Amino acid sequence: MALPKEYDDLPGTFVFDADQARRGYHLNMFCMSLMTAGNRAAFKAGERAYLDKWPMSEEQKQAVLKRDWNGMLELGGNIYFTAKLAATDGLSFQQIAAMMTGSTQAEYAKMMLNGGRPVEGNRSKSEWKK
Amino acid sequence: MARIVAGVACSHIPAIGAAWDNGKADEPYWRPVFDGFEYSKKWIAKFKPDVLIVVYNDHASAFSLEIVPTFAIGCAAEFPIADEGWGPRPVPKVIGHPELASHIVQSTVLDEFDITIVNKMEVDHGLTVPLSLMFGRREAWPCPVVPLCVNVVVYPVPTGHRCYMLGRAIRKAVESFDLDLRVVIFGTGGMSHQLQGPRAGLINREFDTRFLDNLTRDPQSLTRIPHIEYLRETGSEGIEMVMWLIMRGALDDDVREAYRFYHVPASNTALGHIILENAS
After folding, report:
1. Number of Cβ within a 10 Å radius of residue A67
2. Residue spans of beta strands (DSSP E) within chain B
3. Residue B64 and residue A112: Cβ atoms within 8 Å?
4. Adjacent-strand bridge partners of B147
5. Pick the catalytic residue: B193, B227, B263, B273?
6. What is the pLDDT of residue A1?
7. What is the spatial distance between Cα B129 and Cα A80, in angstroms, rounded to a whole number?
8. Does A50 touch chain B (CB under 8 A)?
């Protein structure tokens, strides 16, 4: 019997559990390869060709090419790995966080300066459906 | 004998390292963050630890998904600074304490904790940002460091109770080490934050304040917080706070809160920092 996933009820959150880690293994290992300057340059020089060296699904490759940050997480990416792709693009953690929430950088930064996203109304998927 | 004399908890937000390294520490956004550590820098200069044990998590720097140890202790003589995608931070390499580190491994394994031994490892912002905050700019870090990595990347992370008990076992290990050393243990990461998905930016000041209060006076209650509560109440990355419980477990039951600092925001995160001294 599978372990229960109580966290499936969290709104707007991708929990990187064993199933996601298995699904995203090659996607994350691709991101990991961007930790050297040489690989970052090679990726920049030809993204598709670089991606084709990794046994990732076409869906995962498209998410990378489109910089669909939520899509990558949904397909098994982990934020600490995809952050290396962001760094390769010269983006900070806060910039990709803003993109994942669908806000502009300025709106997101303002929300953080005002104390961040409150937990009230953000605990459960049922609260997001209203 | 060696003794753990105090504990420090501290967030390890990468943007703090980037602000520091790129000369932005005096900007109005960052100044309050660095000012919040002025007391701490004086405190640790006066406290003069001989060795630090730094509990942190690797952020896909030393450990990819090829190997994901739940608890790993760095036993190397030195630890180079990792390139996390924008070049290594311009900070000194970290010098290890291989004798104490391997002693802790031996003792804790015999106490039934299955620790991974790491003899070659680069260290990332998880370890170096707290060092920058506590020691400022240095040619070399003032003392050796035993790195203790905890998996908080692949869910499930170890439970708070397990972390607390590991802290206890580390204390016992340190106290059976022959050299006369003053050891300070750091628990890093936290506090409430979520870096990913449409819910990114979550902050829970009430939870964080209660956590800080109970860290001093009722740590046992914190060891019972279930994973889902961390995820729901503090954001997906807030669960890093279990690492603070390793630090707390290594201290006396009675501790004195010497200092506390809490600040929102540092990038996406609530920055929490506390210094606890053993009451004895």
Report:
1. 15
2. 3-10, 51-56, 71-74, 78-79, 94-95, 116-118, 145-150, 182-188, 255-266, 269-278
3. no
4. B54
5. B193
6. 67
7. 16
8. no
Domain spans, chain B: 10-278
For residue range B73-94, list pLDDT tens digits in order.
999 999 999 988 778 999 999 9
For B10-278, CATH gives 3.40.830.10
Q: Which structure tokens are listed for B64?
A: 């990819």
Query: pLDDT, tens digit, for every residue of B125-173?
Result: 999 999 999 999 999 999 999 999 999 999 999 999 999 999 999 999 9
Contact at 8 Å (CB) between B249 and B229?
Answer: no
State yes or no: is B193 an active-site residue: yes
- In this predicted model, what pLDDT tens digit does every residue of A100-121 receive, in sequence order? 999 999 999 999 999 999 999 9
Distances in whole angstroms, Cα of residue B234 to Cα of each of B190, B208, B246: 9, 8, 19
Q: Do A97 and B14 lie within an 8 Å CB cutoff?
A: no
